Amino acid sequence: MKRIFNIQRLFVMxxxxxxxxxxxxxxxxxxxxxxxxxxxxxxxLDKLTEQLAKEQNYDTVKYPHMATNNYQNSIKExxxxxxxxxxxxxxGAEQLKDIFDDTIxxxxxxNYLILRFLCKYMQNQGNSLDLATQRLHELFNKRxxxxxxxxxxxxxxxxxxxxxxxxxxxxxxxxxxxxxVTATKPGxxxxxxxxxxxxxxxxxxxxxxxxxxxxxxxxxxxxxCNALIQQMPVQxxxxxxxxxxxxxxxxxxxKQQGNTPLAVNWRFSVDDAGNLQxxxxxxxxxxxxxxxxxxxxxxxxxxxxSATKDGVATTSGIDLLTTNISVKSLSDVKFxxxxxxLQILMAVLSKxxxxxxxxxxxxLPKEQxxxxxxxxxxxxxxxLIKGRMKKVLFVI
Length: 396
What we know:
- The chain is built from 13 helices and six strands.
- With 396 residues, it is of the alpha/beta class.
- A six-stranded mixed beta sheet has the order 1-6-5-2-4-3, sandwiched between helices.
- Strand 5, helix 13 and strand 6 (391-395) form a beta-alpha-beta unit.
- The longest helix has 26 residues, at 129-154.
């Protein structure tokens, strides 16, 4: 089996996040009773866009079409897109993400998008490759001229040079504060103030969001991944063990030994938090609070959760990797190889040296355990992460 674990190829499709604009790690100051916990919504984006559009002095002589509603709406869309690209990575801005995030800025993914366009055009028009390419060339050139006009009149260069946190503050100030929720005893009166805030469970992160959270001033994703991997000490040997027992007890045992375990939580449906929900009530909140884009991912990282067994708190600081799976995909070796690769990579990047895989939670015949164990063993030989894991434990 051919194994290519080159960072650039690995992260082109897995982590090709658009080049970050501005200082996304800048601390957000409180403005107009707006706090970093307050979400940035599309409503606030629309309001700020309207404000900025009104400040534009449309040159209807140079651009006569600017007198029409269609062109003015296009100006607003240009303003809105520029603001969104500046702040969609800010805390609480999950609603501003869209399907094309994490694609532009890398030649391979840009080529893929254009190829999709080309194939669709050829299919609909029935043209040859050469004719379709020439036609699209003409269409793109004409379209780019319109886009350039909208971008210039909207002055998106000015917007993209603004400080990200300042724009984020403006958006938060235009977003109505969420009412506070106060837990009370039966019969007691609930009092909530307009500027009160409520603590919320941090949303689970996909691999894109996790790497973004570690970027700092460095904007090269390959360097960030290399740096994170290099921070994990090289082990003389990675132990691969089958163990019996309870997965939560296994997590506790590894923590007591001074290790940093990451447990795999299998989820067969997005409506179900997974097989570890019975021990960790916070798990469903962590998954529900994930961003829209993250919820589409195969693996989601939830950190610092607390476990309970038989109604008694057992331990805190549990980290889980929730993996979406289907009964059919369990017998697909290629699919499971990709899952194992992603899980191990997530473990290394997030500085966990022990991966605990709950095979019992898959409800498979025991003869299939050996096949799945071998898949993980194969991935552990990849040069990128070889020797970075201390243990991979299979709970059977």
